[in-house]
Amino acid sequence: GLHRALDERPGGRARQEVVEGLVLLLEARERFAEAGRELRAAAGITPEDAPRLARAARDFLRANDAAAAEEALVAALRLTPEQGELYRELAVEVFARRGDFSTAEEVLRVAQQNSLDMVPVYRGLTKVLTMREAARFEAAAFAPEESRAAARRLESLRTSAGEVATP
Asked: How does DSSP assign the chain, residue by residue?
């Protein structure tokens, strides 16, 4: 029914209302990838389309499609580069979750230059740094043999240095 209604409305406000109804239905059924695709397809090239693209990105993230979410967020940022929340979502939800902390930090540096509202940018920076440190800790915690071997090498160096320094 809603797809037919979309076919009957080639553009304008009436089409956007049908898209919104279809997306609500898809989201309620947890068909997030389809909802994201509908929103992305309905988005135009004006700043008013940025919230639709951001919502598409959130749907793509719920569907575990980080690449589509990245594309939607970048498109939204091209339309509204002053929106700090979009940079935060891109940095935290796409790049940092992927483990690409350097790109996440670069996104937030760009955000500091462009954003009107710095609060989401600073929240994003805090989150990225926390995630980076947690990843480092997790890597160290799950590599105990490697850590023990490094500790043995360090102890060996200390012992060797002590033996050399003692006459």
From this structure: -HHHHHHH--SHHHHHHHHHHHHHHHHHTT-HHHHHHHHHHH--SSGGGHHHHHHHHHHHHHTT-HHHHHHHHHHHHHH-TT-HHHHHHIIIIIIIHHT-HHHHHHHHHHHHHH-S--HHHHHHHHHHHHHHHHHHHHHHHT-HHHHHHHHHHHHHHHHHHHHHH--
pTM above 0.90, yes or no: no
Print the SS3 string covering 117-138.
Answer: CCHHHHHHHHHHHHHHHHHHHH
Query: Splitting the chain (167 residues) into consecutive groups of 10 residues, what average pLDDT does each group show?
Result: 56 73 92 95 88 96 97 96 97 97 97 96 97 89 66 72 52
Distance CA 25, CA 48 (A): 22
Tokens in use for 6?
Answer: 């979309």
Q: Which amino acid is at 120?
A: P
